[in-house]
Amino acid sequence: MNLLVVTAVQAELDALGVDGLVGGVGPVAAAVSTAMALGSGTYDLVLSTGLAGGFAGRAPIGSIVVADTVRWADLGADTDEGFLDLAGLGLAGGDVLASPGGRWVTDALDLPVLTGEILTLSTMTGTDRRGAELASVHPSAVAEAMEGYGVAWAAQAAGVPWAELRAISNLVGRRDRSAWNIPLAFESLRTAVAALVRATVDS
Ligand SMILES: O=C(O)c1cccc(C(=O)CC[C@H]2O[C@@H](n3cnc4c(=O)[nH]cnc43)[C@H](O)[C@@H]2O)c1
């Protein structure tokens, strides 16, 4: 099985110690990079991976999360009546995508993983108020990152199964870089992705 691993930044790919694509930060960079890679190679599964913020009480620092769905959570309109997603705006298109490869990834890992929705946001949450709002509006969200939906959209358009797997480096809320535990998250991520790569060799 040929796996395309997509991270946002070089430090994430270096930490994994596998071949892959540094797709850039944010959903647009991730989508364009993934689409270009899928146009020039043959892959059986695309994996969006890297660090993520975990929602308090749902995904602690150091844990591994696998998406059952990804949601572009800031695609829509901010109104006096609250946030309107695409459906709320009466626009066609999907801001939520179900992962065709998530179940396979979870089953392939002989590790404890948390499964749920992973939000994709162009604006990383940096206040407790926004974090609480997102947690309330998206009760099944376990984490937020900035690329999953873009990778998923490109893979879906190319007809290739995709999954999102992340390690929690920080909690969603007030931005406090001193509270990020990147070494722990990278250790979890390296273990999980190594197990996944082993599983792809057998498939
Ligand atoms: O500062 C460092 O040493 C460092 C090393 C590797 C990666 C980083 C990043 O900042 C990665 C950015 C990447 O991580 C995702 N991420 C992580 N936490 C959050 C969050 O709370 N909310 C949204 N996204 C998050 C995101 O996908 C970024 O692209 C730093």
Salient structural properties:
203 residues; alpha/beta; Rossmann fold; five-stranded mixed barrel; 34% helix; globular; binds ligand LNDFFVEH; adenosylhomocysteine nucleosidase activity; Nucleoside_phosphorylase_d; EC 3.2.2.26; Nucleoside_phosphorylase_sf
Task: Spell out the CATH superfamily.
Answer: Nucleoside phosphorylase domain
Helix content: 25-40%
Count of individual domains: 1
The count of DSSP E runs of length 2 or more, i.e. the number of strands, is: 10
Query: What would CATH call the class?
Result: Alpha Beta
Strand content: 25-35%
For the biggest sheet, the summary is: 5 strands, mixed, barrel
Radius of gyration: 16 Å
Give the N-terminus to C-terminus distance in angstroms. 6 Å
Q: Please state the structural category.
A: alpha/beta
Strand order in the largest sheet: 3-9-8-4-10
Rounded average pLDDT: 97
CATH structural fold name: Rossmann fold
Which blocks of ≥5 consecutive residues have pLDDT under 50? none
Q: Ions, cofactors, ligands: which are bound?
A: the ligand O=C(O)c1cccc(C(=O)CC[C@H]2O[C@@H](n3cnc4c(=O)[nH]cnc43)[C@H](O)[C@@H]2O)c1
Q: SSE string, helix = H, strand = E?
A: EHEHEEEEEHEHEHEH
Q: Indicate the overall shape.
A: globular
